[in-house]
Design brief:
This is Protein ApaG. The chain is mainly beta. It is built from no helices and eight strands. A hairpin with a 4-residue loop joins strand 3 and strand 4. The N and C termini lie far apart (about 55 Å).
Length: about 130
């Protein structure tokens, strides 16, 4: 028998390279990422804040912390999802992001929802 953790948030990520906003000659690579946050736990929970580590191909790390996501603090009942799109730019054609969302359940329990590392990569072009 499989049991569901009381506090379980699943995070799914889709990425897209925005060639129209990027300038490879100027070391500017722009990416969009679409995140789906799904409450797989048994308690409703609200997203309070976010914490990102954004790493470029040279190993430089940018740390980002802030309240909510895209100006919102989504409240998710068990089985509900919230989807949003945001973006970032890098000085290299490849990089990665990872982080966490800080959550609070209706019973007052605070917990982190892990965002596993994902790759940001501009497509290679043939010359």
């Amino acid at each position: 028998m499989t049991t569901t953790p009381d506090y379980a948030i699943e995070v799914d990520v889709e990425t897209e390279y925005l060639s129209g906003e990027s300038d490879p000659a100027g070391n500017r690579y722009v990416f969009a990422y679409t995140i789906t946050i799904l409450n797989r736990g048994v308690h409703p929970a609200r997203l309070l804040s976010r914490h990102w580590l954004i790493t470029d191909a040279d190993g430089a790390i940018q740390e980002v912390r802030g309240p909510g996501v895209v100006g919102e603090h989504p409240y998710l009942r068990p089985g509900e999802a919230f989807r949003y799109t945001s973006g970032t730019q890098l000085p290299t054609a490849v990089g990665s992001m990872q982080g966490s969302y800080q959550m609070i359940a209706d019973d007052g329990t605070r917990f982190d929802a892990t965002i596993e590392p994902f790759v940001l990569a501009a497509p290679r072009t043939l010359h």
